[in-house]
Amino acid sequence: MKQIIEVNNLNFGYNDSLILKDISFSVDKGDFLGLIGANGSGKSTLVKLLLKILTPLSGEIMLLGENISRFKQWDKIGYVSQKANSFNSSFPATVEEIVTANLFSKIGLFKLPKKHHKEQVYHALELVGMQDYGKKLIGNLSGGQQQRVFIARVLVSEPEIMFLDEPTVGIDAKSEEAVYCLLARLNQELGLTIIMVTHDISAITIHANKLICLGENGLFIHDPKEGITAAFASELYGYGVNLHSHDCKNCLREVTKC
Amino acid sequence: MLEIFQYDFMQKAFITGILIAIITPCIGVVVVLKRLSMIGDSLSHNSLAGVAAGLAFGLNPILGAVLFSIAAAFGIDRVRKSFPRYSEIAIAVIMSTGIGLAGILSGFVKNSANFNSFLFGSIVAISDFELYLVIGLSAIVILAVIFLFKELFYITFDEEAARLAGIPIKSINFVFTLLTAVTISVSARTVGTLVISSLMVLPVATAMQIAKSYKQTVVFAVIFALIFTLSGLSISYYADFKPGGTIVLVGILTLICVLIYKNVLSKAIVKRAIRCHNHN
After folding, report:
1. Do the Cβ atoms of A104 and B167 come within 8 Å?
2. Most exposed residue of A97, A153, B182, B245, measured as fewest CB within 10 angstroms of its CB?
3. How far is it, in rounded angstroms, from Cα B101 to Cα A107?
4. C-alpha distances in Å from residue A181, one per residue of A123, A130, A186
5. Between chains, do B165 and A81 touch, taking CB under 8 Å as contact?
């Protein structure tokens, strides 16, 4: 399988403390990768390094076969940040305007969107089941619906890799399950590579095919098929963790149907 | 022809008023939605220092305002980098600088009546050169806002995502800073430096009460700004009021009316929903 992300001997820290020490791993095309670990273990930092929002102290990151320092194909990378959950909900923007904004690389500087761009926007909204909400103000939608819109915003530019940083924070359990189902479907249907930071160990174990665990002892890769026990999670997080299993029957049916 | 338009100075006042009413809310939408409403006050106080410098040293006061305002805008950007989580500190520091400079430089101005006319605006004081300057700079601002519409929208909504989408954030923020500074300084003569930031915020605040999209917010804000400016200029002509203050007070009254209307309307909707619920 084609490697689309390669990280070699990566080091990063703030001030005097190293948060990520000698990290190496790779991601294959079509992977659904879960990134888990305690708060402050460096999950979001790692994602920001992979997105060039932060610069590593040392080490090498290869994105789509190119060194990140020279990487230009950002339209092939999608990112749903933690901030997407905490945006200004009174911002007067419609769903259509928000999703269209991410077509910048296809529309170009100083140009206005055309009819076929609008069709692309509604196709992306259809993929997340939000095609009837194009004219609605983003602030008038529920948390789960907003999250779907932010995923559509990423999908509209037809990325090869989608990063999500705790996309289910602040939404109810039903909407959370719907987001996981949607991601699993996009991964299977479109072959989209997904890298997702989450604290929901049970749900990510069901959907991901690879887990990267960040703990006090550094990074290690875990096969979700082997499952995660409470003892394993407690060791990773550094304190007692109880795992609650997810009822993903509907979700699995939806994935199978695809 | 209406009596008001028989005078050359009123024709100039209306032309500059219309242009200012178009450009200020276009910039104001981004400023308000980025939650930087006070930036207008900061830049206008610096443009006042520019006016004082211009009058004191024999330069055109509007040109002085443009130069000082641009310098202040970049000053805010620079100071903000030192206080990344407290952008209001940068605005306050640069505003204090502007007030200090304006206070000292105004002492060198011989014609204090001319300087005072910049505080609350003056419809009789617009020269031909200033009219052409306003027309030229307004054309640049309008074209830039049209061609950078989608980029400014995305940067305002989510700067991080906009960068990932390939938008040249630094260049566009640079251009926007220039546009803001230019807009504030060219408005100084008609509306006045002390009230220009209100004209950036009031039409946008009113438009946000009724708009159903970002595009509508911009269009409604321009319409409201035109209503405030044209009615404010007319009232100030007939009642012999200062134009800047009149324009702003018309804006405040309109905002209050829209807020009351919205409040009454939402209460009526709730009452109707309760009636329908009880009926069923």
Report:
1. yes
2. B245
3. 45
4. 18, 15, 9
5. no
Tens of each residue's pLDDT in chain B, 280 residues:
577 778 888 888 889 889 999 999 999 999 999 888 888 889 999 999 999 999 999 888 888 999 999 999 989 988 988 887 787 898 999 999 999 999 999 999 888 878 888 887 776 778 888 889 889 989 999 999 999 999 999 999 988 888 888 889 889 988 998 899 888 888 877 778 878 888 899 999 999 999 999 999 999 999 999 999 999 989 988 998 888 889 999 999 999 999 999 888 878 888 888 888 777 6
Distance from CA of A44 to the nearest CA of B (A): 14
A74 touches chain B (CB under 8 A): yes
Structural element, H or E, at residue A67: strand A66-67
Judged by CB atoms closer than 8 Å, whether chains meet at A94 and B151 is answered as no
Q: What fold, for A3-257?
A: Rossmann fold (3.40.50)
Name the residue among B165, B211, B214 with its Cβ closest to that of A104. B165
> What residues of A are in contact with residue B171 (Cβ under 8 Å)?
none
Query: Does the predicted TM-score (pTM) go above 0.80?
Result: yes
- Pairing of the two strands A218-222 and A32-37: unpaired
- Could you tell me the residue ranges of all domains in chain B? 3-199
Q: Could you tell me the residue ranges of all domains in chain A?
A: 3-257
- Determine contact, residues A189/A169, Cβ cutoff 8 Å: no
Size of interface A-B (CB pairs under 8 A): 81
What is the ipTM score, two decimals? 0.82
